[in-house]
Batch of 2 targets.
Target 1
Amino acid sequence: MAFSYRFSAFVGLLVVLNSCVIGEPKRRNVLLIIADDAGFESDVYNNTAIRTPHLRALARRSLVFRNAFTSVSSCSPSRAAILTGLPQHQSGMYGLHQDVHHFNSFDGVQSLPLLLGQAGIRTGIIGKKHVGPGAVYPFDFAYTEENSSVLQVGRNITRIKLLPQYGPFCERFGNGDSGMGRIPDWTPEHYSPEEVKVPYFIPDTPVSRADLAAQYTTISRLDQGIGLVLKELREAGFENDTLVIYSSDNGIPFPNGRTNLYWSGTAEPLLVSSPEHRQRWGQQSQAYVSLLDITPTILDWLSVPYPAHSLVGGGRGQRVELTGRSLLPALEAEPLWDTVFGSQSLHEVTMYYPMRAVHQGPYRLVHNLNYKMPFPIDQDFYVSPTFQDLLNRTQAGQPLSWFKTLQGYYYRSRWELYDSRADPTETRNLADDPAYAPVLEGLQSRLLKWQWVTSDPWVCGPDAVLETKLSPQCRPLFNGL
Ligand SMILES: *[C@@H]1O[C@H](CO)[C@@H](O)[C@H](O)[C@H]1NC(C)=O
Ligand SMILES: *[C@@H]1O[C@H](CO)[C@@H](O)[C@H](O)[C@H]1NC(C)=O
Ligand SMILES: *[C@@H]1O[C@H](CO)[C@@H](O)[C@H](O)[C@H]1NC(C)=O
Ligand SMILES: *[C@@H]1O[C@H](CO)[C@@H](O)[C@H](O)[C@H]1NC(C)=O
Ligand SMILES: *[C@@H]1O[C@H](CO)[C@@H](O)[C@H](O)[C@H]1NC(C)=O
């Protein structure tokens, strides 16, 4: 188990291209491409330091969303949310699926592959799956970490021993250097630490710049992979009947990114390309959309209804409602959608730190339920050069070149309220500012309502206990919070 972080680092970063091909031969198909740990490292999102010609080509045929968010900043919970339309607290996929973490969705969850299969539509998944149990995600075709050499690499200790040479982002794997093997279709793009763009939430140090440069190289593999898949699609004659969606699962694996419900942990690239909705191709949308919208979008595209059902255990008998919406109307006219929700409970099994969030217009509210605990750090992020550098500098009392201190990162307030107009980096907490009391209360009540609608077992925390015997209600604990 000592090597588990290397396993997840490898799965997480080598398999950057994950496509689910969902086919209905006669009329409409869907290709859903979910990158792993990717962010806005693309010229589509105005990062001119990196070249992503294939994503740019896709963007010319897509509506580009500028305010898309994952509901959860962790791989398996996010992939489960994408494939079920349910937040992690409702699907049961609370944390990572693989090895010791062992999280799974509830047995009764109605996932896309299940619903589409029942509708006679064939589904397949290639690349990282990272969700379970198998019966909840019954793809007709699967070539994932469960079959591919990635599993081998995770289990073969000789290879695990050799793993670090692939680099922290596995950016050297397959690049043709001695011992790296070759991926014939990949022409690696290299970047110097000086040329990368350092986002506001990452320390600007030589170490993190080198980390970012390595990450850019993996993005070139992703970008070229997307080009290959789209070429296959075109040559197979499906270009004009396939909805193509590109996004990523969570924030990038840097400080304040993955595992956080801040903007930097939840904002995602999102391109939606429909051959039947060309009026907005190449345009951008400001609408607030969620990866919880992907399931309703695909069901809408394929005209498959979402069945009435409840999840006993997870949902206490309450009827399951999708709180996301189909994105197809946005492909025709700019909608006025301004609210998205977030819900995180764990990443690795040891990382219990429940948070709930709502982002409405300029405001983001984060509720840190267990705010007296230090914010947890995951194993592969811990060993990343950027975090090691942060630890070393903090210990040595050297400048961090960061927008936070480690202490501030670890210890958070119960409520965090930010106004992105005046404070785009989310550093000035307004939750205690009396002038924002009405905003705070309004957001708290929206968040609470969403938690009830989605059967959130954490809805009463941390100062009360959820009592479900009669009608569900919060019973006070008198614990001083
Ligand atoms: C890129 O920058 C241009 C010019 O400032 C802006 O109009 C556009 O919205 C930006 N694109 C994205 C995706 O943020
Ligand atoms: C991959 O593994 C899964 C689970 O064992 C299996 O159902 C599937 O058929 C395998 N796929 C291939 C292409 O062998
Ligand atoms: C384990 O990995 C080593 C190094 O790549 C390789 O030589 C060996 O064949 C692998 N073992 C198995 C069982 O595949
Ligand atoms: C797809 O539609 C476009 C525009 O109608 C057309 O030019 C193109 O030939 C079509 N492609 C295929 C493969 O049918
Ligand atoms: C952090 O400090 C340790 C111990 O001095 C050292 O081995 C390591 O290379 C340093 N890492 C970074 C990224 O500075």
Target 2
Amino acid sequence: MGALARALLLPWWLSATARPASPTPVPGTPALPRADGLALALEPAGAAANFLAMVDNLQGDSGRGYYLEMLIGTPPQKLQILVDTGSSNFAVAGCHGLLFCCHRSSTYRSKGFDVTVKYTQGSWTGFVGEDLVTIPRAFNSSFLANVATIFESENFFLPGIKWNGILGLAYATLAKPSSSLETFFDSLVTQAKIPDIFSMQMCGAGLPVSRSGTNGGSLVLGGIEPSLYKGDIWYTPIKEEWYYQIEILKLEIGGQSLNLDCREYNADKAIVDSGTTLLRLPQKVFDAVVDAVARTSLIPEFSDGFWTGAQLACWANSETPWAYFPKISIYLREENSSRSFRITILPQLYIQPMMGAGLSYECYRFGISPSTNALVIGATVMEGFYVVFDRARRRVGFAVSPCAETAGVPLSEVSGPFSTDGIASNCVPSPSLNEPVLWVVSYALMSSCGLILLVLIVLLLLPCRCRHAPRDPEVINDESSLVRHRWK
Ligand SMILES: *[C@@H]1O[C@H](CO)[C@@H](O)[C@H](O)[C@H]1NC(C)=O
Ligand SMILES: *[C@@H]1O[C@H](CO)[C@@H](O)[C@H](O)[C@H]1NC(C)=O
């Protein structure tokens, strides 16, 4: 209750306009980053990969995404590319959108078709081609890759972002216009001869979301760099290779299980997506989490606006609010399916400071939002961990990230194993489970179609007899005469 008295709730736009260190506020546009969905020690076989060179090759923050410098074309044009594990197309802004001018590249080849990609928020259209691409902070050679040059976009290149292209690192299944358009990472694995694995560390945990500076991060292509994690890497299987879809067994708020049916956590999928800002939860799970966080926190009467994202909560600079909020744990199925492990985030990761120093108070937003079709482990959660996308072994790994700490206190934990007793053997509704139901439905549809067809045939035949039989064959209306003439 003490916290409630001291916490000052502001509508977010008010505090956003009051931001002292705002880089360039755009009139009419909220200065907040978009709420969701920017809406990312093996030695590689290929000698050209250099993991140490990849350490700290990313920049960005959870609000606007983490990006990588790439060189495209001949002579090379330098671009900053958003790393997105929730999509599978590689695309860059075209000439008038600032950047890649394919007509200036001697190695560019058009493929002769356009593609449109829609994201949770935003979309773009571009023409597809291929060109040579170099990642200076990873390889010293270049690779031939498919790249879309964006000529039209909506809500995609938002104000304040510092990147001008997107690198979709998910599976080819999601690639547009079809899975036959080879993804950048598939091209890289083939040409650089690196193992089919990449890993990511994003270092913005506990730092203000929308300050003018950027944080570091690492995208390790082809393996795992030991200096980027502490303790063990725990792996969960990839359920289906499209998004990085995993299976969530349980959620705990302040050590208390939400006790929902575990299928609710995977409705209709649970994915790991570096291109989404927040932790997004299916509506039912979101409601339960808000309930539990509000109950567990020492500020039970907190305004609804805070939970919905409409308001920020502000505290005097001398005080941080994190001690009032509980830890959140997500339990994932281990490779041995009768065991699980958990990843835990401290409130520093989901109660996010917005502005950085400047005023006498600091305002925070709730880093969790509802979703209609997925549970998304977005950048807010990923910032706590070194996340390994082990495509070769069809699994995603989590380890504690050394950069996720403030004042020496770790902001995340990974621990296990735990038993899966009392949890369904499969929390992901699989197509095979629904198959009998689908068969029944299709038989029902087929028989009703048959019935309707029968009725139609009867109706077609009956009027012919009824109308014409009793009449004089010569007295016919114009329509039937037309038909008759044709028949002759
Ligand atoms: C670049 O490639 C050459 C071989 O072509 C290799 O000897 C060299 O070590 C590589 N440099 C880096 C930074 O990976
Ligand atoms: C899987 O885990 C269970 C429970 O810990 C254990 O009894 C079993 O031996 C494990 N199976 C394998 C193949 O490791």
